[in-house]
Known about the structure:
107 residues; five-stranded antiparallel β-sheet; globular; Jelly Rolls
Amino acid sequence: MENAVKxxxxxxxxxxxxxxxxxxxxxxxxxxxxxxxFDRGQGLSEHxxxxxxMVYLVDGEAEVIISGQANHLKAGEMIxxxxxxxxxxxxxxxxxxxxxxxxxxxx
Length: 107
């Protein structure tokens, strides 16, 4: 096991003009933690996922649409995207987010 290292989330990923950038921090059977950086106007089209996911905005502003309902998020805010509900994201301003997806099922 590696030693724990304190890091700033925002410093772990950079913006690229006209792009969406991602960096996986944890990828385990139980779930993933991924950082994303979206340039202004970029986004992810509507899709569904079979697991709950939490989006935490590290920087900037985003619109997160869940089942047709728009939610405006700013840095420091989070939202839960429920499993099997259509969702999409769009950068109101360039933004960075941490996506935490839990894959495990309750027994």
